[in-house]
């Protein structure tokens, strides 16, 4: 009997249901621009390319009216991000294909985006490793 009495208390009653209705639907997600995957070499101790890894970068555009500007600039963004990734390899942020200092890499990409579009246009940066492949003999 105790269980039967406790079950209705766990279910949303009339006092809780209107609160859900007042909230409405969740807000729409901001638009995202995906930069095509970037090939990053993994260099061994002898300075030879051992394999490649792919990194994908997605940019969340907080100001939807500027989405077109960001999309048109994808080639420039690709080049700027690739330059930042190679600098990250030199700085030690990326070691053997692994991103060791993600905040520094993200900060540099954000600085490039601010330089291209101004502040608060790109609000979030997602960096995802995709795949690795061996180098050719």
Provide a brief overview of the structure.
This protein has 137 residues and is α+β, with helices and mostly antiparallel strands. It contains five helices and five strands; from the N terminus they run H-H-E-E-H-H-E-E-H-E.
Describe the 3D structure.
This is Flagellar protein FliL. With 137 residues, the protein is an alpha+beta fold. It has one domain (32-134). It is built from 5 helices and 5 strands. The protein has helices spanning 2-10, 17-23, 67-72, 74-91, 102-117, and strands spanning 32-43, 49-61, 94-95, 98-99, 122-134. A 3-stranded antiparallel beta sheet has the order 1-2-5. Helix 4 packs antiparallel against helix 5 (102-117).
């Amino acid at each position: 009997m105790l269980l039967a009495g406790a079950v209705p208390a766990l279910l949303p009653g009339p006092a809780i249901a209107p609160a859900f209705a007042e909230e409405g639907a969740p807000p729409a997600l901001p638009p995202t621009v995906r930069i095509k995957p970037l090939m990053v070499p993994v260099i061994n101790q002898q300075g030879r390319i051992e394999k490649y890894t792919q990194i994908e970068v997605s940019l969340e555009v907080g100001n939807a009216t500027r989405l077109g500007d960001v999309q048109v600039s994808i080639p420039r963004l690709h080049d700027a991000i690739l330059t930042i990734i190679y600098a990250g390899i030199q700085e030690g942020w990326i070691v053997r294909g692994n991103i060791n200092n993600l905040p520094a890499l993200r900060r540099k990409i954000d600085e490039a985006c601010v330089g291209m579009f101004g502040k608060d246009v790109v609000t979030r940066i997602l960096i995802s490793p995709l795949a690795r492949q061996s180098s050719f003999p």
